[in-house]
Write a structure and sequence with these properties.
mainly alpha; transmembrane helix; MetI-like fold; about 325 residues; globular
Length: about 325
């Protein structure tokens, strides 16, 4: 008689390995795999990286929930108290309101203005990086895969753009785009123009990195096998080649976010960024700079510290991610 049921399963588990039971691997959960990964181990062992992540997360949460966190609404004319103008930090104004970081010349709470300004800075920086990444990755994939005159044209344009400072390119693009927009719509389109300007000035590094990796990956066996079975080039690029270049792209994007935030602050400080009705951190620094030498130092110092903390924390995260994704350093 043949064994059946539990007896048969017991015999099958002990049949292999000369009677030794075979232990079947249980599927691990997502969180378990994350906490067991080398990246999490590297992250948890770096106190500076953990601190940078906490600071970055605090800025993102403050920007998202600004109406709930900010004690005042600084950019609504009805909520301003002009008699509270130039109130020093940690003091009460004439209206009885307490201001942690003081107020500016119009009685706006500097702490609330920083929270709302960080929202604009992060929005512009994130969208600019996303636009530059999509444009640069697409052009880099096409240039590396097709080669020939397409590669030559794209790379020569990139070389010409690299010969100019990125902030100068952003200024030029911003000026040209703003000149083509009617005056009545310039304030409404200022943020979109700023995003496009910064994105067009930062796409080159993505394109050059992706092009070099694509030129290596297109000669691999899996790409040649996909060509043989008739897979279209578009599918090969975005299904097979793109996942192998995303590691480098994420590192560049993380560092590029800090650079985009600084670029937005620089343009706003120069007076060509977002309108004063929706100021960013750069605009707050520019406004406070007019009163710096008259003794109201807090109007520009606190937004400057916030900008430095945000850019530095994001930059440190990018440096850690570059080392964590580098197989030679593991």
């Amino acid at each position: 008689m043949s064994a059946s049921g539990p007896e048969q399963q017991s015999m099958e588990t002990t049949a292999q390995g000369h009677g030794e039971p075979v232990l079947q691997d249980r599927p691990q959960g997502l969180l378990h795999r994350v906490f067991d990964s080398d990246i999490w181990h590297s992250f948890s062992r770096s106190p500076i990286t953990v601190l940078s992540a906490i600071v970055t997360l605090m800025f993102f949460l403050a920007a998202i929930f600004a109406p709930l966190i900010a004690p005042y609404t600084p950019f609504q004319a009805g909520s301003l108290h002009l008699m509270d103008g130039f109130t020093p930090p940690f003091e009460e104004g004439m209206s009885g309101n307490f201001y942690v970081f003081g107020t500016d010349d119009q009685g706006r709470d500097v702490f609330s203005a920083i929270i709302y300004g960080a929202r604009i800075s992060l929005l512009v920086g994130f969208c600019a990086v996303l636009f530059a990444m999509v444009l640069g990755v697409t052009l880099g994939l096409i240039a590396g895969y097709r080669g020939g005159w397409i590669d030559t044209v794209i790379m020569r344009i990139a070389d010409v753009q690299l010969s100019f400072p990125a902030i100068l390119v952003a200024l030029l693009i911003f000026g040209l785009a703003k000149a083509m927009i009617p005056r009545d719509y310039q304030d409404h389109m200022a943020i979109y123009v700023l995003i496009i300007s910064i994105g067009l000035s930062d796409w080159v590094q993505y394109a050059r990195t992706v092009r070099g990796t694509t030129m290596v990956e297109k000669n691999r066996e899996y790409v040649q096998a996909a060509r043989v079975i008739g897979v279209r080039p578009f599918t090969i690029l975005f299904r097979h080649v793109l996942p192998n270049v995303m590691g480098s792209v994420l590192v560049i994007a993380t560092i590029g976010l800090a650079l985009a935030i600084i670029a937005e602050a620089t343009l706003s400080f120069l007076g060509v960024g977002v309108p004063p009705t929706t100021p960013s951190l750069g605009t707050l620094i520019r406004i406070g700079n007019d009163f710096l030498f008259s003794g109201e130092w807090w109007i520009t110092i606190f937004p400057g510290i916030a900008l430095v903390m945000l850019a530095l924390s994001v930059n440190l995260l990018g440096d850690w991610l570059r080392d964590a994704l580098n197989p030679k350093l593991r």
